[in-house]
Design brief:
197 residues, mainly alpha, elongated
Length: 197
């Protein structure tokens, strides 16, 4: 008779431990989610919203997560899918806010701080979405196979996207290559009094 209540207590204890572990993993991944979200959308506030929505969706779908599988990849996939869902919806609308028009008529300060970071962000923005996403996932600490899992693409494709993205970003950061300067071509001296008429 006492075996059933003890087994029930053990099951409840294991469930509580799993819940605590899941919540600890959620808290630990928040900075990475925010960084990945910022890389995808380029906007700090929207990145925070993406991270928060990802946490909410993860809590709601906690039962669908299989312990022992890659938690980080699961979370990044949730964020990525939510971002692309928002992007599809956003294409249907064009926001107009009159108070923002004043910002368009002013120029930002010309200070030198953060120039490299701004160049890097602009360089990332020039990359195709697939390359940018692969680079950001790699920078978030995921391995090649985990990135392939998150993106739903073959491993070779992920490696190619990262390699091409790195090369394009390096070319962007290095700037245009100056054409080689060739020495002037020597012209033959003119001969005076030639036989020609």
């Amino acid at each position: 008779m006492t075996a059933a209540p003890d087994q029930k207590r053990q099951t409840q204890s294991a469930d509580l431990e799993a819940e605590a572990s899941f919540r600890a993993d959620l808290v630990a991944i928040i900075p990475s989610l925010r960084a990945f979200g910022r890389g995808l959308c380029g906007n700090r506030e929207l990145a925070d919203d993406l991270a928060q929505e990802t946490l909410t969706k993860a809590l709601a779908a906690q039962d669908s997560f299989k312990p022992g599988t890659n938690f980080r990849a699961w979370m990044f996939r949730i964020l990525r899918n939510h971002f692309y869902t928002l992007a599809v919806v956003a294409k249907r609308f064009v926001p107009y806010e009159p108070e923002d028009m004043a910002h368009l008529q002013t120029s930002p300060p010309e200070q030198g701080g953060g120039i490299v970071l701004q160049d890097l962000l602009r360089g990332l923005a020039t990359l195709p979405a697939e390359q940018r996403e692969a680079l950001l996932l790699m920078e978030s600490g995921l391995q090649w196979d985990e990135i392939a899992d998150v993106m739903g693409t073959p491993l070779g494709t992920v490696k190619s996207r990262i390699t091409r993205g790195r090369a394009a970003l390096r070319r962007y950061m290095d700037g245009p290559v100056d054409p080689p300067v060739l020495p002037p071509v020597a012209t033959p001296p003119k001969v005076e009094g030639s036989a020609r008429s």
